[in-house]
Each structure stands twice: as C-alpha cells, then as structure tokens.
Amino acid sequence: MDDEGFDLVSLLCSRLCHDLVSPVGAVNNGLEVLSDESDAEMREMAMRLITQSAERAANKLEFARLAYGAAGGPDAVIDLTQARKVTAALLKDHQVNLDWQCNAESAHRLPAKLLVNGALLAAEALPRGGNVSAFLSQQEKRVKIRITAEGSMLRPLESMAEILEGEIALAGLAPRLVQAYFTGMIARFMNGKLLAEIGPERIILHGNFAG
Description:
Elements: H1 3-36, H2 40-68, E1 77-79, H3 80-93, E2 96-102, E3 106-108, H4 109-123, E4 130-139, E5 142-150, H5 160-164, H6 178-189, E6 195-198, E7 202-210
Parallel strand pairs: 2-4
Antiparallel strand pairs: 1-3, 4-5, 5-7, 6-7
Helix pairs in contact: 1-2, 2-3, 3-4, 4-6
C-alpha cells in the first residue's frame, strides 16, 4: 500500500468512527438510564432512545459496507434496489428525501458506488434537509450519472469541485472532506470525472463514463 492508500484508509476510518460516535453513545446513555431508573416513563424514553439510535448506527454501517466495502471483489454486481433502500435509510437521518432514478436493476460495483457516494456527498450539503435525486442510465456501453441536491440552505464543501476532479491532493485533507475525495477517486477509476455545478439553490454532480 502506498502513502495515498494508507492516508485514504485512515481518513475513511476516522470519518466512520466520527459518524458512529453519536448513535452508539446514545445507545450507551439509554442503557445507563435503564440500569438506574425505576420510573416507567423514563424507562420508556430510554428504550425509545436506544431503538432509534441503534437504527441510526445500523443504517450508517450498512451504507458504509455498500459505499466503501469490497464485498464480491472487483467484478461484483450490485443490486440497485437494495442500494436505493440502504441509501434512502441513511439520507432519512439527514432529513433528506431520495428520488432514485435508475434504468437497470443492477450495475457494476464502480458505477453503483459512485452513485451512492455522490448521493451522500450531495445530502451533506443540505444541513436543513431537502431533496436529492440520483440518476443512473446504462445504455450502449455508456454509463451516465447525475445527482442533484436542492434545499432551503445549501452548504457545499469548500473546494468540492476541485477535490472531486482530483486537483487537490489527499495529503492534508480533513476527514470531513474525504467523502468528496473518495467519490472523485471512484470516477477516476472509471476513466472519467464527476463534475460539480454549484449554484445558490442547487448542486449538480454529473459524469459520462464507459460502461
């Protein structure tokens, strides 16, 4: 593994741990309440906290396995119906609705991973929630991907377009920026780029790749 690969793994692990700290900590807090409290109402609230937080943690882990994992090897085919379900569950935690538009039931792992990672990147630019559309079309050995984010307040990552296009090196990037870098890396593995158009009310990520 070269230095870039090592740094990428480290940053992705840092990001995943950061994402899981809150829901796992909430589960622990709920368990502490259950062990100390005899009041029925407090115990009910603790159980509700545990249930909701465990679901959030499970959603994050399931998405991480899909988005970052290597299950099935380099030639794996991903069920897009399952990918939609996993992505929608994660985006729901961000108060973001997902409009999934794919003309196929399955896709090679790279286009599928690019779509779901791009959808998360778009959703994270919507701190007050909103809508993300994820479009994938496979025709005549070409793959087209288009992801749109719309909401009342857009806050895209600084230098998102440059990071996606590989114009900014991984070295020195903060963990919160690694999602953009990893998403752009997938596009480069597909011998293309995921381009970003950032406006005041909409973000569009799009690319056209060889199938």
